Amino acid sequence: MNVEIRKENAKTFVKLTGRLDTTNADQFQKDIAPLMEEAKPDYEIDCTDMEYTSSQGLRLFLMLQKSVSSKGGSMVMTNMRPQVKEVFDITGFSNIIRIL
Amino acid sequence: MYFCSMERRFDPVEGKNAEIIETVMNCPEVVNLPEDVKFKVRLCVEEIEENILDYSGTTWVDVHVNAATDELKITFKDGGMEFDPLKRQDPDINAPLEQRQIGGLGIYLCKEMMDSVSYRYENGSNILTMVKKIK
């Protein structure tokens, strides 16, 4: 899983590429650590090239969303592939994370 | 009627997560499945295997892949302590963000994505079987 973080004015764009699973969840957690530090988070996460996530990935998206919400920030995940979206739908994550 | 596509013991099993997943995904009967079915198979193999490694304390896992014309059956057998992951309460998927817990999501995903998931404890081994219809 490759994580690109790009800041434009007050908004942060994140692009995810590849598979997020048990073998790289720890690295992903380190990669997104800066996003947990932001005082006023405003994140748009491009999921066009995110091929896969297991519950290991869901755990980290939940952690990120909780951090963003606790600071009154905003986070949206965009262009999710149907199979990945299904993982979010089945687990009810689509109700707690904004997906466009 | 099933025929065996793959039967392999991972001993020791520690650190073999990726190898187990790729071994199943590279079975001839799995390689040619539609992408959406492969996605589900990969996810469920990962979740079950994670669960075994987290809870059973086993040092080895046997993985069997059996195929029939219309379904795929994957069996995991381990020598750890008796543990039925299917008995675990399903997560509350309607809970608000603040109350959401991560535990149990993996097994829940398997139950939803496979056509059947079953567990038995036999001769000192945990045996978990999942079946996916492929036609």
Please report the number of helical segments of chain A: 5
Unreliable spans of chain A? none
**What does the radius of gyration of chain B come to?**
15 Å
- Percent of residues of chain B in beta strands? 25-35%
- Chain oligomer state: heterodimer
Runs of chain B with pLDDT <50, length 5+? none
**Biggest chain contact:** A-B, 21 and 27 residues
Shape label of chain A: globular
SSE order of chain B in H/E notation?
EHHHEEHEE
Structural class of chain A: alpha/beta
Mean pLDDT of chain B: 93
Order of helices and strands of chain A: EEHHEHEHHE
Main pleated sheet of chain A: 5 strands, mixed
SS-derived structural category of chain B: alpha+beta
How far apart are the first and last residues' alpha carbons of chain A, in Å?
21 Å
How far apart are the termini of chain B? 15 Å
Into which percentage range does the β-strand content of chain A fall?
Answer: 35-45%
Number of strands of chain B: 5
- The largest sheet of chain A has its strands arranged as 1-2-3-4-5
Query: What integer is the average pLDDT of chain A?
Result: 96
- Proportion of residues in helical segments of chain A: 40-55%
